[in-house]
Amino acid sequence: MLITFCGYEEDLKIVNMRLIKTDSPRESAECLELGRGVLWRHIRQQEAVAELGMDALAFAEVPTFMDHAMERVAAILDVPYVKVLEFLPAENSFLLRAGRGWQNATVGETRISADKTVQTGYTLASGAVMVEDFGVEQRFTAPELLIKHGVVSGISVPIYSINKPYGVLGAHTDTVRRFTEYDISFLQSIANVIASVIDRKRVEATLQNSEVRLRKLAVHVEAIKEQERARIAREIHDELGQALTGLNMDVHWLAGRLAKDQTGLSDKVRSMGALIDCTIKTVQHISSELRPSVLDDLGLGAAILRVVDQFINRTGIRCDVDIAMDDAGVGHKGATAVFRIIQEALTNVTRHAQASNVSIQVKEDSGRLHVLVKDNGIGLTETDIGNANAIGLMGMKERALEIGGSLVIESGTENGTLVRLDVPLISDKA
Ligand SMILES: Nc1ncnc2c1ncn2[C@@H]1O[C@H](COP(=O)(O)OP(=O)(O)OP(=O)(O)O)[C@@H](O)[C@H]1O
Ligand SMILES: [Mg+2]
Fold first, then answer.
1. Which atom of ligand 1 is nearest to the CA of 390?
2. Which CATH superfamily groups domain 298-430?
3. Could you tell me which of 87, 170, 219, 259 has the fewest CB atoms within 10 Å of its CB?
4. Given a cut of 50, is residue 297 above it in pLDDT?
């Protein structure tokens, strides 16, 4: 039987996995049959690699993906035993991470030697390995797990994760089987897909970890800022305020002791008193900006009204306020967070919005506090919101998260900007 091969028609047979010429039509027919089988297996293997590549993106956890991959490898290679081993350098051993067919082994517990004289260790050190019969194998011994299950033949390949070996993937049979180079490439491709899933999960975990740490840091920084502000406000108010009040009293005392004809001196003392009065007001203003005492003394509602008053006086922008809440429900920490968020939202309106109107709504509903700050200005883009330099917006979100709430910024160029804050109310005053 003539086989068309690369455009030539020849009688071919397979010797040692290579095609060579033959004069026997029977050998040639066998070769064609064999070739069809090999080609068919190879196509199925390629399909399986492609499918697993897609599945790699869908599976959320590494162990479930490995189980799925083990099933596919066992089916495609038609082998009873498949395993993924993770290399544990500190113990110089492998841990069974996933497997199929093993009766005397437990995933997550069974350990296998990583010695280079054993097939597993040899694979990790030297690369893909094919064994036709462990009984006559000279390069290494079979690990105990394979001996216990009467494994005779097998292939194994290393799994390389970023910068370091992860472990070994193996497929085995308990009857003699001659695997092919195609089988090895198939298994190596699967090992690479497994490695990519492991790497992706590691990167995701690292990212998640650094996000959590960054968030904690941001919360910590905000808390320290708040404490520092309160401390400086107290110091300014108590130390500077009292000293100025004392000075003022001295100046009044001095004024009372001046003779009527010392008009030059008494004018000077009076203007000193006026300057001291003015400085006392400035000090009070600075300290209340740093930590509005009204927040502690009269509560969140009054503090919001105060900040809105200051906003209107400073900017001339119209501001409608609608507050329907019970101060006690928010707690001390919550009140500070909500107050600072509204303060930052109003500062942003002053600095960026070019708005003529702002409305603030603070309402309690179903155990939650809903806050809306809406302006009719130029709005902002998604890029503005996601910008790494938008520390003010980020701080607002972090403050909301810190008290178990959420903050969303909505904007369209025609509708201005809407800051929507949602905070759970608490029963005890934290
Ligand atoms: N109400 C708003 N209207 C229009 N643009 C806004 C508004 N609020 C914020 N932005 C835009 O979003 C950007 C980020 O705001 P963010 O508060 O994070 O920073 P900032 O106000 O520029 O500086 P700061 O760190 O002092 O707050 C602003 O630079 C501005 O471009
Ligand atoms: Mg800002």
1. 18
2. Histidine kinase-like ATPase, C-terminal domain (3.30.565.10)
3. 259
4. yes
Residues with Cβ within 8 Å of residue 374, at least 6 apart in sequence: 358, 359, 360, 361, 416, 417, 418, 419
Q: Cβ distance 221 to 391 under 8 Å?
A: no
Write out pLDDT tens, residues 257-273. Answer: 998 888 899 999 999 99
The strand pairing partners of 169, in sequence order, are 84, 157
3-state secondary structure 2-68: CEEECCEEECEEEECCEEEECCCHHHHHHHHHHHHHHHHHHHHHHHHHHHHHHHHHHCCCHHHHHHH
Q: 390 CA to middle of ligand 1, Å?
A: 7
Tell me: the pLDDT tens digits for 80-116? 999 999 999 999 999 999 999 999 888 999 999 999 9
Q: Which ligand is nearest to the CA of 374?
A: 1
What fold characterizes domain 3-204?
Answer: Beta-Lactamase (3.30.450)
For ligand 1, residues with CB inside 6 Å are: 348-349, 351-353, 375, 377-380, 384, 390-393, 417
pLDDT of res. 104: 81
